[in-house]
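TEACHING EXERCISE
Course module: macromolecular assemblies
Task: Read the component lines below, then compare them to the predicted structure of the full complex.
Student: A.B.
Group: 4
Components provided:
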Amino acid sequence: MNRISKTLKEKDNILSIYFTAGFPELNSTIEIIKNLVSAGVDMIEIGLPFSDPLADGETIQMSSKIALDNGISTNILFEQLKEIRNHVNIPLIIMGYFNPIFQFGVEEFCKKCNEIGIDGLIIPDLPIDIYLSNYKIIFEKNQLQNIFLITPQTNKKRIEYIDKNSDGFLYVVSSSSITGSTNKFDESSINYFKKLEKMNLSTPKIIGFGISDNENFNTASKYSKGCIVGSAFIKYIQKNGLKNIHNFINQIKIVN
Amino acid sequence: MSYNVNSKGYYGDFGGAYIPEMLLHNIDELKENYIKIMSDDSFQQEFNQLLKDYVGRPSPLYFSKNLSEKYSAKIYLKREDLNHTGAHKINNTIGQIILAKRLKKSRIIAETGAGQHGVATATVCALMGLKCIVYMGATDVKRQAPNVARMKMLGADVIPVTSGSSTLKDATNEAMRDWINNPIDTHYIVGSVVGPHPFPDMVARFQSVISKEIKEQLLLAEGRNYPDYLIACVGGGSNAAGTFYDYLDDERVKIICVEASGKGVNSGKSAATTKLGKTGIIHGSKTLLMQTDDGQITEPYSISAGLDYPGIGPMHANLFTSGRGEFISIDDDEAMSAGLQLSQLEGIIPAIETSHALAVFDHKKFNSTDIIVLNLSGRGDKDLENYINYFNI
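Instructor-supplied answer key:
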């Protein structure tokens, strides 16, 4: 069974952390993953940097730019991750915009992911219809789950359509915004989570965007399997380095 | 075979809507409504009335006697430079602002490079009383101070963008981010035939008034409603799309697209997308774009701020790969000389973008009987400082 599905089946209150590969240093990738695992996170999203991340706020734009200036590339990331499965068992997902994947060759990219032991991809600017007609077969052949986003603007019919065509989890964007907004969930976000809960979707949900503390984590976990933290983590390592990652994780989630 | 958009939003292999789910609602709303709204009689009436009384259309089709003599061909200039605000850009912003009102939007956002589209957007927002926010790369804000002042005078908020390389592509990213954050009350007036479907098609339709007028005007002037050649410069490609629109599938008419090669195609400082670009995704559209082997979008360069976009619209990408359009690259020096020449031969100072198109006559030999229409897309007032510094006038 795919590690993502297994984790979702066995655990609740899942904490998934996003970080940008190649930030703060070109070779930080492995150290970050290992520190996250020992700090007790349940799932990791490795960001493949892009020059024009149009769904991302300032923090991820900044980390992507620094990573690219540091010289990160798709090939270097794959090289860094080559032996990661000797050390890490939790689900690993690569999140990146479509153009770098398209240039690498979607088939070649997926094959590489499979060799390394990547479990899924999140490609925010690859819409589900283009995925289904052109790429689904390649993903399946390489045992990769493709994770789709839904937002407060996604209508009921489309949520059902995405649910039907998803494995892994639904990435529930908490509000109508780019990444990195730090507001507390407002009433409309909560109503949206409740609405989703009532829909009894077959794919498990994980909530992301704008989650930076324990309060939001607990709220998100109440309405879903857990949450994804990205910008807040990147800000933390920019300020505090990689050594004390467990402190950050403990602030968000009390690990038993 | 048609060179226009198909029902799925593609021109050949190019186009589509490669957008994050967060933008889907906005794009779908537009996709479901734009044709319906635009074909409404009352829309057409309002649009045409404003083009006539406010923009000053039809723009003249001017037979350029002196250029024609110099290059031994029949050269006509389509005078988009005489439009209100000084370029073709206003055709599109007039159309989109009426559309935005009919979609009950109260807030308008736009991106701008040189500031021409920003000014055209700020203008129609002032006219219609809608709030206007223009995203402009911080580098361009400095380079294009007069247009920044114009936008402010027209009541727009100009927001300098410091992400990425602080130029047009980053301003476009920032406008898209704004749209993600404001999915209900905001319309994004994209300035060129770029971005996710339906923008390339919608902008091309609004600009198609250029080719519709050429048809009528040429019939009167030449007794036939088509030229042998159409020439236009291509940055994103909106003036070219408008010039070609009604002739796309009329293969009697040869199409010439002029790109900016900056300091030379292989100089590392160029915007010649068809020479340097590969198929990829930029701003939600599959098209030709300049990028690294790793798929990172690179920064283009041209002396003309309106041509330094790292991609071209999907219509033009298809014109290029299908061979329907001939693409010629013109460098900074060639363009500047052609701009000076037109100023002194015809008494018309063209925008530097347009000067690139004018430089084609030194590159390509035409027959003396060839009827050529070149779109004089903008006037050069905004570029005076650039011309003056370049020629040490």
